[in-house]
């Protein structure tokens, strides 16, 4: 019997070869090119999601990584206004006598004696200014901070906090300065009531009298706001990294007290200059900031630039504790009232 032969015509041979190619393609490339492209896109998307999740874990304490994607300007503005106004009124009411003592110590020239009567003088009029000023400050600070945290890299969050504090302070100064002028004129016994103070200041010094010492106020308050909020935010970030959890109200209060006391001590000379320029009235004892510093040092010595540092550090330390404690508590309460229970996923994204 002869050898077995396989007879295949040309058409069947071509079909068989085609089937072999198809089988080999299915083995080597189980997905078609469109499918491969789609699979590649899906894998890439999955990798991006995984990297984003890893990034969130890596930068646990970074506010920008969680808040920037859910930033809602109007909501943050509203919550900042409410929280800031509430915190400002509580602090001012509780600590007004200490502030009065500090102001009277700084305003004394030479060997004068401090007056202890009327420590709440001017409180009502001051609250009328503190409420909008605090609301404006936090209302500007919070959305500005969140936007800058989106722009700046993770290692420059301190710059975002410094800048936001200065911008918030600049916006609030339009209300703060007239409020401060009226308050300090009343604390030093120049006027009996806030309406009288406003009327007499405008009558004797013009409208610009309500902004007496404006530049010295900015010289003190812009660095103060920037430094205080930067210290507070950075300490919270460090604490969150160490504790791996959110802070409670007592912890926020302690950090706020430390940030306030430290910043208050650093900026005391600026506060003395601001006080002297604001309470001088139409007499114009000082011709600007530089002349004020030179006159104080020449007539009273350099230690005079630290007058009132004790009450100031005490006042701002306790005030920082109350302010930041109330601020964070109010912000959390407002966040819980949002439509969605998830604080970071409450509605469509808006810029």
From TrEMBL:
Sorted UniProt keywords: Chloroplast, Membrane, Plastid, Repeat, S-adenosyl-L-methionine, Transit peptide, Transmembrane, Transmembrane helix, Transport
Protein topology in the membrane: Multi-pass membrane protein
GO cellular component, one term: chloroplast membrane
Main localization category: membrane
Single GO BP term: transmembrane transport
Domain of life: Eukaryota
Protein localization: Membrane; Plastid, Chloroplast membrane
Solcar repeats (start-end): 75-147, 156-238, 251-333
Pfam families assigned to the protein according to its UniProt record, in alphabetical order: Mito_carr
Keyword Chloroplast: yes
Family from the record: Belongs to the mitochondrial carrier (TC 2.A.29) family.
Protein name: S-adenosylmethionine transporter
Organism of provenance: Vitis rotundifolia
Lineage: Eukaryota, Viridiplantae, Streptophyta, Embryophyta, Tracheophyta
